[in-house]
Amino acid sequence: MTYVASPSYDRNDPSRVSNLRQCLETARRRLDEISHASETEKIATLVASAIEAGWEDDEGREALSPGDEQQNKMFEQEPPVRTIGVVPSSSF
């Protein structure tokens, strides 16, 4: 399971959808860093994690549906660039 933040808004609040997407994007970035699972497995993990965090099953699945433009952007992101051994300096 990967961490997905709990809902910050009531089920009927219009901000809830964007809150869920933000939570899933964050969880997805982390999952991409630590897992080599298939796309199907990652989506299943995200849905299960969202439900565990208090999101409704239907809203989690809807937010991750393939036809969702926001979802497509989430999965098309390039992996993060890793810089090993680089420590930012505060002396500039």
Please give a structural write-up.
The protein is an all-alpha fold. Helix content is 54%, strand content 0%. The protein contains four helices and no strands. The radius of gyration is 15 Å and the shape is globular. The chain starts with 14 loop residues before the first helix and ends in a 16-residue tail after the last helix.
- The radius of gyration over CA amounts to 15 Å
Q: Report mean pLDDT, rounded to a whole number.
A: 81
**Structural class from helices and strands?**
mainly alpha
Give the overall shape.
globular
| Quantity of strands, as a count | 0
How many separate helices?
4
Uncertain spans:
none
Percent of residues in beta strands: under 5%
Separation, N- and C-terminal Cα atoms: 41 Å
Q: How helical, in percent, are the residues? A: 40-55%
User: What is the N-to-C succession of helices and strands?
Assistant: HHHH
> What composes the largest sheet?
none
Task: State the gist of this model.
The chain has 92 residues and is mostly helical. The protein contains four helices and no strands. Helix content is 54%, strand content 0%.
Topology diagram in text:
Layout: H1 15-34, H2 39-53, H3 57-63, H4 69-76
Task: State the main characteristics.
92 residues, mainly alpha, 0% strand
